Structures are given as C-alpha cells and as structure tokens.
Amino acid sequence: MKLHWTQNSIKNHLQRSILLVCCLVCFGWLVSNPGIAQPVEPIMIVSPGDGSVVTAPIELTAMVQPGADGLVRVSLFDKQGGLLARQVMRLSESNSDALEWTTRLAFEIPVEITPAILVVTTLDQAQRPIAVRTAGLSLKSAGYAKIEPTDFTGPWLQIDQPEPGTVIDTSPLVVRGQVSPINDYPVIFSLVTERGGAIVARQLAVETPGEPIDFEIVLPFTPTSTIRNMRLTIRQGSKINGVYAILDSLPISIEP
C-alpha cells in the first residue's frame, strides 16, 4: 500500500509539473503576442481538473493574473447552486506575469458523494469579475480522491476589436472576434457599469460547442454626461443557475 501511494504521488506530481510548464509556455506566448488574442488567458486551473473526485480539503493550484487589487475569489457550489465554501484572497499587485497560486478549500457535505462546481474568479477594484474559470467536481465525504488532469486547449476567446482601455464617445460599441464556446449555452456580451449592472447585453447562439464562431456584436448605449469606467464582459452560463461556466472581460471607458 505504501508503494502504491508513492507511485500515485509521483504520477500526480509529474502531471502537475507538466501542466505548469504548459501553462507558463502559453502565458509567455500570449503576453509576447498581445495583438493576437485579447483578453489573454487570465486564469488556468491546474488542479483539480474537470471530472476530479475530491475529499476535503480541496487543494487548488492555479495560474492567475491578478486584477488591480489582486483579489481572487474561490467558491464551491453544489448542483442546486448552494454555496458550500468560499475564500477571498489578495495576491500581489496587478502585473503582466502569471502567478502560480495554491490554496486549500474546506467543505462539508451531508451525503457520501455529490456533484459540485469549483469557481475561480478574479475581481477588479469595483468588485466586478475580470475572469472566471470553473471545474466540475465530485465531492466525497471520505475515501480516496481521484484527481484528473486539466485539459487545456488554448484560449476560448479572441477579441480583435475593441482593445482593452478603448475610449468611446459614440454609440454603438462594435465587438469583433472569435469564440470557441465550451458548452451549448449562449455566449453573452454585456457592458457592465461600476456598480455591476449591465446597461446592454446581446446573445450569440451556440450550435456546436468547441466549434469556432466569428462574430460581430453591436452594443448600443445611451450617451453619458460623465466619464464612465465600464467593463465589456463575455461569458457563458452553466447548468447551475446564476453560476458562470466561463467569463472574460476588458475595461472600456465611455466619454460624453
């Protein structure tokens, strides 16, 4: 039994090391080619991967690009959307480098095993989501865990227009790019205010998950008398009501 545990430990360590190398290579490529894919991949959940069976506490390892305040939120929801656990942490200040980050998330469940979703969110200074990444898990109250490797195939979203930090003064905002949906839920484009409310939203229908879609989305908005720091968000929902499966965003300013 001791030898079996040692072999599994070595296997898991090697898988994690390989995934971290792949993540670093991908981050390096994205940062060195800023005009090719915007926004860059801001979160990569290294472990546990989608489909993992876990016991408490969950050991989460991720590559994260923190926002302006370095805030990262980790949440665990059951299949009904009930919150099982949550942590909010402040990492280093915002920079272009990805951080390898590990935390442990404790939970309790009243049954032997139950499905859940692990959600990692980076937040901006206004507490708006910058990015969201998720992993579907099976929670066990006791016994052995089975950690699946993360299957990273590259960024799901490429924004060609607008660029981050774009200042606009006339309606509409036109968003162009390509998306490879991760599920069959619509892709939702929103302009979000400093208080977190959306002033406009449009949907892009999905026929085949994983198949790239070239898009041009028009977002009309009402002219403003003051400068507004908005965030353009692109997201997909999940089977759990109110929980995003994936989200990326970029800052936009609207001027009079």
Structure overview:
Helix content is 12%, strand content 46%. The chain has 256 residues and is mainly β. It folds into two domains: 2-140, Immunoglobulin-like, CATH 2.60.40.2550; 157-254, Immunoglobulin-like. The strands form four sheets. The protein has a five-stranded mixed β-sheet with strand order 2-8-7-4-5, with no helix packed on it. A hairpin with a 4-residue loop joins strand 4 and strand 5. The protein is globular.
Protein traits:
single chain; 16 strands; globular; mainly beta; disordered N terminus; 1 helix; 5-stranded mixed β-sheet; 256 residues; Immunoglobulin-like
Oligomer: single chain
Q: What is the CA-based Rg, rounded?
A: 19 Å
CATH topology of the largest domain: Immunoglobulin-like
The major β-sheet equals:
5 strands, mixed
| Topology order in helix (H) and strand (E) letters | HEEEEEEEEEEEEEEEE
Q: Uncertain runs with pLDDT below 50, 5 residues or more?
A: 1-15, 17-39
Mean pLDDT: 86
Number of separate domains: 2
Strands, count: 16
Count of runs of 4 or more consecutive helical residues:
1
Q: Which class do the helix and strand fractions yield?
A: mainly beta
Trace the largest sheet across and list its strands.
Answer: 2-8-7-4-5
- CATH class of the largest domain, named Mainly Beta
Instruction: Indicate the overall shape.
Output: globular
Strand content: over 45%
CATH architecture of the largest domain: Sandwich
